[in-house]
């Protein structure tokens, strides 16, 4: 825990009192500066691995973050810098134990969201699950909250304040978790912002 906090540029410490007399829970929210790492398919990394750019041909391309998440809450912010009119950029997580694939939406450990109104849970497509309506546009900033303690993730569009949450099945998606982004259309571009 000490090493993770030392690597983080920002953290918030919250204490929940009176859970049990004389015992309180302490939460540490880490604002993590992740960068993109492993890639598969027609995607290039730029700007010190903070930007993933799809090349000039339409096809599935996967990129993962380098960070591995086991406990606590981690907030990642992503800016959509270029976005094809079909609006197909997947943002979510997968287990770091699962091999990277070009179309990871079929993986049983994948969880996340993609336009138009697509939600993937354990590699299964669910249209509009949890009321999800994709409203992301070019230049939008999306916040992905990875809550390891509560076994869930939440996606929030900062412009529209729309927010959606998924519970994670630890049997199908064991720790550690990693950021997983999938691009499909030529020229799509997404940036990991510093916290």
Global geometry: globular
Major sheet characteristics: 9 strands, mixed
Q: Report, as a whole number of angstroms, the end-to-end distance.
A: 19 Å
Mean pLDDT: 89
- Looking at the overall shape, the CATH architecture is Sandwich
- Assembly classification: single chain
Instruction: Give the uncertain stretches in residue-range form.
Output: 6-10
Number of helices: 1
Overall CATH class: Mainly Beta
The succession of helices and strands, N to C, reads: HEEEEEEEEEEEEEEEE
Q: In what range is the share of β-strand residues?
A: over 45%
Radius of gyration: 16 Å
- The name of the CATH topology is Jelly Rolls
SSE-based structural type: mainly beta
How much helicity do the residues have?
A: under 10%
CATH homologous superfamily descriptor: SPRY domain
Whole-number total of structural domains: 1
What is the count of β-strands?
16
